[in-house]
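Slide 14.
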Amino acid sequence: MKTKRNIYILYAIAFLQGMVFYGPVATLYRQAAGVSVFQITVIESISLALCIGLELPWGIAADKIGYKRTMIISCAVYFLSKVVFWRADGFADFLLERILLSVVMAGMSGCDVSILYLSSKEEESQKVFGIYQFLSMTGLLMSSLLFSVCIGEDYRLAGFLTMVSYGAAAVFSLGIKEVKGKETKKERGQRFFSVLIQTVKDRNFLLAIIGMALLAETNQTVTVFLSQLQYVKAGMDLKTMGVVYILVTLAGMTGMWSYWFTRRLGSFLFGLVLFLGGAAACLVLSSTESAVISVGAVLVLRLSASLFSPLSTQLQNRRIKGQDRATALSIYAVVLESTGVVTNILFGRAAEEDISNAMVLGAVLCVAGACLFSIFYRREGKNRDFSISR
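Slide 15: predicted structure.
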């Protein structure tokens, strides 16, 4: 069932949920409320661990109650998490916010992209995923501009405006049209174990998933959290950080061109270049105290991860053969998030000692990801699941 309406609604939701007004000072916001860098990474790891526990139950529930209801519930809880974040003060409050966020991430994981995939033509799915990511970054860009121009150091106002935007996204979710067909309870029960066994047995692709996670988690931790510490080390003021955040957000909007590069370079070569680009960026960050060079390296890392994301999403969707798409994607997400739990703790410990150590760790993880990605490609070859339709 193809429906453009769903695509446009999800585009709107992506834009509104991209409007995180406190984004340029996410780490400083938490520190101002009494949370240390290590506590931030601990909260992130707890959040990811909870996501892992909720992934499969949510995936099964999504395939049972439908993708529309799952999205509505997830968007409503997402809004509630931003209400908590707006008023958060101390470790416990921010932990509660991330617990709610874990419920959301597990619920939306695989559900939003399943709706997009089933609402579009297969050959256009990577392009649709790229635009979806682009609009999310567009929302982040607009909120970052407003932060720099109007908000400044009023962190709580930034939290309030973010809450309002997420409330609007929850309203938009009510307009989604269901794309999953109905089925009996017996059919669901029989297929779940089949999906689980088939996905777990696909060891080659699970290696690729771990590799993808290493690049994604390095990007998330370095560009969202550690970059601000790098900027402080380089002597950058708060207003300039806001401007830099806008540039990094613009770099995150490049995912919509992932399809174009993939068609010209091939999925393997393009992916390998992005992994190595992320590693090089982290190495540069580990060895410089220059503000300009630091900004350039962060931009390269964000570019690498953003261009790889739509390719990663398409590869996962194309790997799925059965009807229970949300369940299979949730299994993949468990692998991704399990990897993230480990990397968050490693980054937190490394950053507590020295920010440069954390950046070296990022380079090592990106190289490891490139190796796993290469192993998968060598074992699989250019088959129809891995290559891009021409």
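Speaker note: The chain has a mean pLDDT of 86.
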